[in-house]
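Ticket opened by: R.M.
Priority: normal
Category: complex prediction / small molecule

The reporter submitted a protein together with flavin mononucleotide and asked that the result be attached to this ticket for the collaborator who will pick it up next week. Submitted input follows.
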Amino acid sequence: MNATAEAQTHTLILDDTEVSFHEGETIYEVAQRAGREVPTLCYDKRLEAFGACRLCVVQLEGARNPVASCTTPAEAGMVVHTSTEAIKKHRRTLLELVASENPEATINPLRGFASQELNELLCKNDVQPGRFQGQQSGTSNGDDNPFILRDYDHCISCYRCVRVCAEQEGDYAITMMNRGFETQITTEFNNRLKDSACTFCGQCVQTCPTGALGDRKAMRAESLPGELEKTRSVCPYCGVGCQVDLLSKEDRLVGIQPAMDGPANEGALCIKGQFAFDFVQHEDRLTKPLVRGDDGELHEVDWNIALDRAAEGFRKVLKKHGRHAVYGVASGRAPNEAAYTMQKFIRAGFGTNQIDNCSRA
Amino acid sequence: MSRDTDTELVNQWRKEPAPLLPLLHAFQNRDSYLTENALRCVSDALKIPLAELFGTVTFYHHFSREENGQSKPRVCDGPVCRFRGTENLLDALNAKPMPCAGRCDSPVPVLQGNEVLIGSDANSLKPLPSPLPPPNPGGIEECVFAHIREEGRATIEGYQKTGGYAALKKALCDFPENLVALISESKLAGRGGAGFPTGKKWEMVAQAEGNPKTIVCNADEGEPGCFKDRTLLDYDPHATLEGMILAAYATGATRGFIYLRYEYPDTMRILERAIAEAKDTGLLGQNIGGKAGFDFEIYIRRGAGAYICGEEGSLLNSLEGKHPFPRNRPPFPVTHGFEDLPTVVNNVETFSAAPPIVKHGADWYQSLGLGEHVGTKAVSLSGDIQRPGNYEVPFGLPLKTLLHDWAGGPPSGQSIQAVSMAGLSGGFLGGSDLDEVTLDEPSIRSKGAFLGAAGIMVFDDRRNMVDVAHNAMAFFAEESCGKCFPCRIGTHRLTERLNGSGGPATESEWHTEVDDIGDTMMATSACGLGMAAPNITRSLQKYFPEQVAAHLQSVSR
Ligand SMILES: Cc1cc2nc3c(=O)[nH]c(=O)nc-3n(C[C@H](O)[C@H](O)[C@H](O)COP(=O)(O)O)c2cc1C
Ligand code: SF4
Ligand code: SF4
Ligand code: SF4
Ligand code: FES
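Result attached by the on-call engineer:
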């Protein structure tokens, strides 16, 4: 597409108001921008629009059937109605149908970022519980990995997990098996995640709109007292700078969720940023400096003593083996300023160029 | 017998166009099922992630993941066969049921490995060629069946002796644009169900940017009660090839595929021979018919058991080796088809109509219809009828003429209670509508059904229509791809409501639920399967309310 076409704007009529849009936008995107509330379940703005849930249907004047707004490109002159009585009824029926395939349940928000989406829509749309009763879909997988709960009794086959794994993470670890009502999310050869290409990045968990996939580490805190709080922060593990929301209850860190609007990560994390936070409150964690005494045991001391002890060690090495016996490796978890200080320390302090960083992949 | 090694199989197919299906078939033919090793080899060779490949394989009925799975017999339990011996065969052969396998004119087909046997009990099973269409009982001029009954028509000599490939020669003397114009002028419309104007489709592909362009012949024929494409390909394969070559000339396409349903292994062999003959005669390959620079190849790709793969988006995904969900539209295949390049997808019958149109002209084709109507339609007629088979009818022919005058009416002592339309997708017609409708879309659509691919199955007064509807809805539920919510859940819920295993027992609540599910499926489903399935329940409710009431009585106990 050339630049002029891209810059070109057109207009369409959205619920009686003229709105402008750019070439390439979908009706859903236009409606979103105009503040219309169009429900969705299979939509995740990071992913290619898929058109599974059909909740986003809108009426187009001149078209026999409603169209899925998420997959339909906006066209100049379209007349779109986002919420006619007929459309609202279809949405209610769709929600009642999807509710009928799963057990009624409240889902703890600790399961994942998007885990409340289905239940919130059921509440908002006057859905009559108990309609369209029949067989339920999905079989949970007794996968005993420590990170990801696979509770497919709650699955609604929106394929967000499969698509995020392929499109965002590029791992293609999960797939849909069988077809129709028998569809089942699984891995190659229907195995456990740890026997698949999964890297336990957790993105499937965070995009799941029902809590069928759950963050097992966060779920340990389900019965802890206190309100769940979210605090925006940056993942401390590496230099990418993924933004995270720290989940806490009272003074405990209970889980981590990726920030969907984090500029560096847009909802992505790796296994460390997502799941490896237990050290924060771990009983083995050092909170005071320790030095080894003549008795061979470690003893708590203050910082001055500890630093003197370290300096003494360095001096001994320098004296015995020379300045090139020292090699500094800065932690990939350190910010730029600390990395700079580290190389200064090695170069100016010891007089050697043997300085490196652990994240040089 | 030596077994091809993994590497031999991989090397045979890796560089071919659309390699996934044939490579999987090659492994399954060798091992009798798809082993874990086979999937790993294929994943590696074609660079398809293993999980995705595994998911895709489980989608198809006839790819087996169990030892000896391929040789386990499958017995048709389609709407016609199930009254003609399916149950006994299933027991006697310890077989698996399969959906309508397109032999409704000579039930019951049993698929065993790569052979189809026919019979109503285990002792009478034998291979049986497709029945030829009976001579046109109305004495009416035909288009696609005009020469099909001539001896040897399936061979290239026989085909050429009876005027075959003359249309191609004629077209090659003229510009491609004029061929497109002629097809447009004839008003030929798609015969696979949707009825899109064929000339328009060819024109759009001719004008679309992007190369290479592709011609796809849709021979998936998965709609229950449809078996016309099988007969066309078995007895007149060169007509379809010629139609495809014409389409290639019209559009500038250089590669073609015939996507053939798995259940037609005999047809596969016939087509392979016909393609080889056409190649030897210079009618496929390079500089076709002596025309410099006109190059076109045709490849057969065998499906693996999935009705949805007849839907063009799903078919294209299947060819490309992707999970065979339908595609979102727009964009359409004419601009974004096979490998996202411009592609014609047409039905077998549509292609076979092209050569006679080129030969005899647009006016001739138009005049074949009755009254205002244009052209003809091959109708597959089966079920409770004296003379089942394929009939080529002029559009506008009264249904009752076909049923009673042409096909001899119901078995003696019975009366016709209902007929299905479009195979199953159109639902049923019953009551006085049976006497009123004519065989054309405006007439049939005015009754809430549609003619589509024109499978018509007849149900006489011995049949329980709720049971018939249940079998039909179970088919749609089984074949729903699972991509969109309304169809994935709706087909299953309607099936449960038709067999009494779910849903309210009071009549009014039952109807409200069934209506609400059906309305939402029709309005919001992502493809034609989910949109059409509720025609079954709607027409059942409309024509047979007493049978529904009796059903509800019996399940409420
Ligand atoms: C569920 C479903 C199944 C279909 N199956 C077939 C089929 O088996 N054969 C076919 O030609 N068209 C089938 N179609 C229609 C195709 O999508 C497409 O419209 C057709 O192949 C175009 O060719 P035509 O214009 O010559 O009819 C199916 C459509 C749907 C929605
Ligand atoms: S955790 Fe990440 S890699 Fe594993 S299945 Fe989920 S998205 Fe894919
Ligand atoms: S597990 Fe969750 S994200 Fe995946 S398909 Fe089911 S409901 Fe959707
Ligand atoms: S309507 Fe049915 S077959 Fe079509 S896309 Fe939806 S689930 Fe698949
Ligand atoms: S958001 Fe459009 S179909 Fe789900």
